[in-house]
Specification:
The chain is α/β, with parallel strands linked by helices. It has helices at 15-26, 33-45, 50-55, 70-79, 83-97, 110-114, 128-141, 148-164, 186-200, and strands at residues 4-8, 29-32, 103-107, 120-125, 177-180.
Length: 203
Amino acid sequence: MIFTVAIDGPAAAGKGTISKAVAARFGLAHLDTGLLYRAVGALVLAGADPVVAARTLNPADLEGDHLRTPAVADAASKVAVIPDVRLALVDFQRSFARRDGGAVLDGRDIGTVICPQAEVKLYVTASAERRADRRYQELVGKGLDVTPQGVLDDVRARDARDSGRDTAPLKPAEDAIIIDTSDLSIDEAVERAAAAIAAKWPL
């Protein structure tokens, strides 16, 4: 069975949590494509050339808590605007998306660029303030020294960078189902996504 679910959206909207939950529910493979860019960003912070890092990325590079730090997230957003970096990672993502057994991919350009033929396209979003609050709670829980305003500023800056880039800007696919999680619980958001997938599920 070939069945692709593309889930896009800005940082801290909940797309990662939703993607993992629906992948488990429907027995689909899951790929957090943002992790690919975080891994490249981490390598760049360590001194690597971004294009070389993207072309030589290996599974071991996708592991480690360091990939979830604000510095790596910022670096990931910066390398993601480099066309040759994106090109190096496209084939990997497309191959994963059309694997036998089906797949869920979450990122920022899955439904628009990577998998425009996806059977289900979702765009998970929330207000910048709500997303910043979630990210702040997450980072404080990890013991990081951050402020609410600083996190909000970072979220807004990343939104502007991701939406304004020339290559594959962040935006919903024309046929994507929008899920605004600003006032939804995790369970409610997952159920909305699952319902959209179930409606397209091959019998």
